[in-house]
Write a structure and sequence with these properties.
Length: about 150
Protein backbone atom coordinates (compact mmCIF):
# COMPACT_ATOMS: atom_id res chain seq x y z
CA UNK A 1 0.00 0.00 0.00
CA UNK A 2 1.26 3.47 -0.85
CA UNK A 3 1.34 5.86 2.09
CA UNK A 4 1.16 9.62 2.32
CA UNK A 5 4.44 11.45 2.78
CA UNK A 6 4.91 12.69 6.33
CA UNK A 7 6.79 15.98 6.43
CA UNK A 8 9.02 14.87 9.29
CA UNK A 9 12.78 15.10 8.99
CA UNK A 10 14.53 11.77 8.43
CA UNK A 11 18.13 11.32 9.63
CA UNK A 12 19.81 10.39 6.34
CA UNK A 13 23.32 9.03 5.73
CA UNK A 14 24.87 9.30 2.29
CA UNK A 15 25.42 5.99 0.54
CA UNK A 16 29.20 6.47 0.47
CA UNK A 17 29.24 7.03 4.23
CA UNK A 18 27.14 4.00 5.25
CA UNK A 19 30.13 1.62 5.44
CA UNK A 20 31.79 3.82 8.07
CA UNK A 21 31.23 3.21 11.79
CA UNK A 22 27.89 4.66 12.90
CA UNK A 23 29.61 7.18 15.18
CA UNK A 24 31.58 8.58 12.22
CA UNK A 25 28.71 8.96 9.77
CA UNK A 26 27.50 12.42 8.74
CA UNK A 27 23.77 12.82 9.29
CA UNK A 28 21.56 15.06 7.17
CA UNK A 29 18.06 15.59 8.60
CA UNK A 30 16.09 15.64 5.34
CA UNK A 31 12.46 16.62 4.90
CA UNK A 32 10.67 14.43 2.36
CA UNK A 33 9.18 16.25 -0.62
CA UNK A 34 5.52 16.19 -1.48
CA UNK A 35 4.19 17.39 -4.83
CA UNK A 36 4.03 20.99 -3.60
CA UNK A 37 7.70 21.00 -2.58
CA UNK A 38 8.62 19.47 -5.94
CA UNK A 39 6.77 22.32 -7.65
CA UNK A 40 8.64 24.83 -5.49
CA UNK A 41 11.89 23.20 -6.68
CA UNK A 42 10.87 23.58 -10.32
CA UNK A 43 10.10 27.25 -9.69
CA UNK A 44 13.42 27.75 -7.89
CA UNK A 45 15.45 26.28 -10.75
CA UNK A 46 13.23 27.69 -13.48
CA UNK A 47 14.40 31.18 -12.57
CA UNK A 48 17.94 30.23 -13.61
CA UNK A 49 16.99 29.55 -17.24
CA UNK A 50 15.78 31.70 -20.08
CA UNK A 51 15.19 31.30 -23.79
CA UNK A 52 18.30 32.19 -25.71
CA UNK A 53 19.08 32.71 -29.37
CA UNK A 54 18.18 30.02 -31.84
CA UNK A 55 15.68 28.41 -29.48
CA UNK A 56 18.34 27.21 -27.03
CA UNK A 57 18.04 27.58 -23.27
CA UNK A 58 20.57 29.78 -21.50
CA UNK A 59 21.39 29.11 -17.86
CA UNK A 60 22.76 31.56 -15.35
CA UNK A 61 25.33 29.65 -13.28
CA UNK A 62 25.09 32.04 -10.33
CA UNK A 63 21.32 31.55 -10.21
CA UNK A 64 21.79 27.78 -10.42
CA UNK A 65 24.24 27.93 -7.50
CA UNK A 66 21.74 30.01 -5.51
CA UNK A 67 18.95 27.56 -6.36
CA UNK A 68 21.07 24.64 -5.11
CA UNK A 69 21.70 26.37 -1.78
CA UNK A 70 18.04 27.38 -1.40
CA UNK A 71 16.94 23.83 -2.25
CA UNK A 72 19.33 22.33 0.32
CA UNK A 73 18.29 24.74 3.07
CA UNK A 74 14.61 24.07 2.32
CA UNK A 75 15.12 20.30 2.61
CA UNK A 76 17.85 19.83 5.23
CA UNK A 77 16.92 20.97 8.71
CA UNK A 78 20.01 19.83 10.54
CA UNK A 79 23.49 18.46 9.80
CA UNK A 80 25.60 16.47 12.24
CA UNK A 81 29.26 15.44 11.96
CA UNK A 82 30.35 17.23 8.80
CA UNK A 83 33.84 18.57 8.15
CA UNK A 84 33.87 22.00 6.55
CA UNK A 85 36.28 22.92 3.77
CA UNK A 86 39.64 24.32 4.84
CA UNK A 87 38.80 27.67 3.21
CA UNK A 88 35.37 27.95 4.86
CA UNK A 89 34.78 31.17 6.75
CA UNK A 90 32.83 29.12 9.32
CA UNK A 91 35.59 26.56 9.95
CA UNK A 92 37.02 28.40 12.97
CA UNK A 93 33.59 28.35 14.62
CA UNK A 94 33.87 24.56 15.04
CA UNK A 95 36.67 22.53 16.62
CA UNK A 96 38.91 21.22 13.83
CA UNK A 97 36.27 22.50 11.39
CA UNK A 98 33.94 19.63 12.27
CA UNK A 99 30.30 20.58 12.66
CA UNK A 100 28.99 18.42 15.48
CA UNK A 101 25.44 19.66 14.88
CA UNK A 102 23.90 22.75 13.31
CA UNK A 103 20.56 24.10 12.26
CA UNK A 104 21.95 27.56 11.41
CA UNK A 105 20.83 28.54 7.90
CA UNK A 106 24.16 30.25 7.13
CA UNK A 107 26.16 27.14 8.04
CA UNK A 108 23.72 24.89 6.15
CA UNK A 109 24.19 27.14 3.11
CA UNK A 110 27.97 26.83 3.49
CA UNK A 111 27.67 23.05 3.66
CA UNK A 112 25.51 23.01 0.53
CA UNK A 113 27.94 25.14 -1.45
CA UNK A 114 30.96 23.06 -0.40
CA UNK A 115 29.57 19.53 -0.91
CA UNK A 116 30.40 17.42 -3.92
CA UNK A 117 27.78 17.65 -6.64
CA UNK A 118 27.15 13.91 -6.30
CA UNK A 119 26.40 14.16 -2.58
CA UNK A 120 24.16 17.18 -3.12
CA UNK A 121 22.27 15.38 -5.87
CA UNK A 122 21.87 12.29 -3.68
CA UNK A 123 20.24 14.34 -0.93
CA UNK A 124 17.90 16.02 -3.42
CA UNK A 125 16.99 12.65 -4.96
CA UNK A 126 16.38 11.04 -1.57
CA UNK A 127 14.09 13.89 -0.50
CA UNK A 128 11.90 13.15 -3.52
CA UNK A 129 11.88 9.36 -3.09
CA UNK A 130 10.58 7.95 0.20
CA UNK A 131 12.18 4.55 -0.45
CA UNK A 132 15.64 6.07 -1.00
CA UNK A 133 15.24 8.26 2.04
CA UNK A 134 14.26 5.28 4.19
CA UNK A 135 17.12 3.17 2.78
CA UNK A 136 19.58 5.80 4.02
CA UNK A 137 18.03 6.24 7.45
CA UNK A 138 20.66 6.63 10.19
CA UNK A 139 20.76 3.46 12.27
CA UNK A 140 22.42 4.83 15.39
CA UNK A 141 20.68 6.40 18.35
CA UNK A 142 18.79 9.52 17.35
CA UNK A 143 17.62 12.29 19.64
CA UNK A 144 14.44 13.45 17.94
CA UNK A 145 14.05 16.38 20.31
CA UNK A 146 17.15 18.00 18.75
CA UNK A 147 15.46 18.39 15.37
CA UNK A 148 14.23 21.85 14.47
CA UNK A 149 10.97 21.90 12.58
Amino acid sequence: MIKAVNREAVPYVLEEDRANPVVDQSIFWVLPKRAHEANESVKRYGGAARDGRGGFRDFNVNKLDTADVEEFVSLVQKVERYELAKDSMYRSKFKDGIVTATTEKEVLAEIASSMSSGHLTEIFDAAGDAAKLEAGRYLGKVKVENVVG
